Amino acid sequence: MKTNQSIHPPVLLGNGSLHRLEELLIRLDAKTVFLVADEPAYKFSGAAQVMDPVLQSRHTTWFTEFALNPKIADVERGVALFRNNRPDAVIALGGGSAIDMAKLIAGCGSQEGEPADYGTGKKKLEAAGPPKIVIPTTSGTGSEATHFAVVYVGEDKFSMAHPSLLPEYVLYDPALTHSLPPGPTAASGLDAFCQSIESIWAVGSTEESVGYSVEALDLSLKNLETAVLKPTPEARLAMAKAAHLAGKAINISKTTAPHAFSYAVTTRFGVPHGAAVALTVGAFLRHNLGVDDDSCNDPRGAEAVKKRLAILLQHLGEGSEETALSRIRELIVKINCPTRLGEVGVKREDLPGLIGAVNLERLSNNPRKITAEQMLALLEPLL
Ligand SMILES: [Zn+2]
To answer: The domain at 11-177 falls in which architecture?
Structure first.
């Protein structure tokens, strides 16, 4: 089936691109706007100076009160507000949570039913809803380039997916990331870094997605450390590109085991998303390198997976497994993020619960099968 998964929204990526917002809203004839924004990001990124006059000249509904890692209760409040206003356009400003929240509200709000039914996949989205303009203020999640959005219903994490969730326009202005502190810069950058690694080995990968991920991987290897420790406009711009390319890659391939395992670490131990994914990416690299015909999930066969893993090792460690693994570790340490589960408070007795929380469907996109026992053996040394 042909889907629009490899169609990408028009992206204006470059310093100052936020100044094009007015022009875009005129083109869309948007007189009423629904803004989903991370309020501190709006105030402190420099967005307010540019956006205040644009929004003040239109009827703008603000939605700013929501938790990180979108919760269904927040989506429900947003949807009620959205349905009362019926906006001509939706604007998202912030990191992955704000962007996913805007997708969830615009997606669910444009249907008739209860948001939870769409969030959990019980019902499919039908009406497309108003155009979405996405303005990222971090470099990492790639949410602006994907047709899915994460939502938590209780402790359970769902990924709502539909072609109409792909934003219609992206204004990616790296100047908005200049005030982002080292911690969030590191965590969001690690998300892009891990997405590019996972995307290369993913069962869902294609030649096109591998192209994006390799480029994203090289850019993050070269620029993440500088963007965190001694940020320069060039390093910020490069990380914005890396994040967006990684987003385009996972929009096609989806993510794999490190992402699948990370969600419960984030919710139960409060570890920022990208840092939680990075905790296990090396361990799963080691596991995936052992792929053979019996353990292979990829219908293209173990040889095809090995070829992609060889590309990955080439870019990460000049072809050597050990060099690649230490390069991953060193990068995480240099930008002051944890490398061991023990460092974030995970104890031996927590592991079965964390493993039990892993979404099995997501694991089928990992190139090598993994049982709960294997995962335990893989993760114990990280305590
Ligand atoms: Zn991620």
So the answer is: 3-Layer(aba) Sandwich (3.40)
Average confidence score pLDDT of the chain:
94
- What is the distance in A from the centroid of ligand 1 to the CA of 195? 6
Residue 87 dihedral angles phi and psi, to the nearest 5°: -70, 160
Class of CATH domain 182-382: mainly alpha
For 90, list phi and psi in degrees, rounded to 5: -115, 135
Distance 191 CA to ligand 1 centre (A): 5
Which run of H or E residues covers position 199?
A: helix 182-201
Provide the pLDDT for residue 156.
87
* Nearby residues for ligand 1 (ion, Cβ within 5 Å): 191
pLDDT in tens, 51-65: 999 999 999 999 999
Percent helix / strand / coil, the chain, rounded to 5: 60, 10, 30
pLDDT digits (tens, 9 = 90+) for 19-45: 999 999 999 999 999 999 999 999 999
Distance between CA atoms of residues 281 and 291, nearest Å:
16
